[in-house]
Amino acid sequence: MSPSTRQHIRTLIRGRRQAIRSDQQAHYALDLVERAKQLPELRAGQKVALYLATDGELDTQPMIEWCWQQGIETYLPVIHPFSKGHLLFLRYAYTTPLVHNQYKILEPKLDKQTICPVADLDVIFTPLVAFDDDGQRLGMGGGYYDRTLAPFATNQTGPNAIGLAHDCQQVGRLPIESWDIPLSTIMTPSKIWRW
After folding, report:
1. In this structure, how many other beta carbons lie within 10 angstroms of the beta carbon of residue 78?
2. What is the pLDDT of residue 153?
3. C-alpha distances in angstroms, 175 versus 83, 93, 129?
4. Where does substrate bind (predicted)?
5. Mean pLDDT of residues grouped by 10 in the chain (195 residues)?
6. Is position 9 annotated in a ligand binding site?
7. Is 94 assigned a ligand-binding role in the annotation?
8. Alpha helices in 37-93 (DSSP H)
9. Is 176 labelled as part of a ligand binding site?
10. pLDDT score at 158
11. C-alpha 169: how far from its chain's center?
């Protein structure tokens, strides 16, 4: 499939999620917490990566706070300063200082003391622009999460990857590329999808 088709889908679906009113966003964020409570993958003492929402993404802050209340260690992605196109995951707490990265997304200020190796994370909740009926995920196009998840895609070790999205981000079928990493679980405010 042509990159323009993927870009067209990105534009279309980003428009859908940006059109969600703030009161609806708040409601969906609370619904997401209710879905999270149903996940057997989440248990106290685990290390879980989330992200801070931007560009109309599903608001993860209530879920982050719920994780804190459950004793689940929470980490956020940081763009790797030397390894182009890769992510680091840093511990996130109420007091963590945040800075804007090159995409104007908030992330923890780099502190090597709070880095968690990707292999030590139990769950990575990934943002996405669109997902399809087969669990394929279309991101923003930078490939950060595909590169992060690639080493664990062919075996049963490493973190469990779970996509987070609004229900309106589902499409019938996505054009896929060789580097795309499908997800076995995607969670929306109304449903947990398993493949």
Report:
1. 20
2. 80
3. 28, 38, 13
4. 52, 57
5. 78 96 97 96 92 96 97 96 92 96 93 96 97 94 91 83 97 90 94 94
6. yes
7. no
8. 61-69
9. no
10. 85
11. 13
CATH code assigned at 46: 3.40.50.10420
Q: How many independent structural domains does the chain possess? A: 1
139 annotated among ligand-binding-site residues: yes
41 is in an annotated binding site: no
35 annotated as belonging to a binding site for a ligand: no
The three-state secondary structure class of 36 is helix
Is 6 annotated as ligand-binding? yes
How far is C-alpha 133 from the geometric centre of its chain's CA atoms?
18
Q: Residue 1: what pLDDT?
A: 45
Q: What is the pTM of this model?
A: 0.94
The predicted structure's pLDDT at residue 86: 92
Q: Is 28 annotated as a binding residue?
A: no
Q: Is 85 annotated as a binding residue?
A: no
pLDDT recorded at residue 45: 84
**Long-range Cβ pairs for the range 71-75 (8 Å, 24+):** 71/44, 71/45, 72/42, 72/43, 72/44, 72/45, 72/46, 72/47, 72/48, 73/45, 73/46, 73/47, 73/48, 73/116, 74/48, 74/49, 74/50, 75/47, 75/48, 75/49, 75/50, 75/116, 75/121
Host domain of residue 84: 3-194
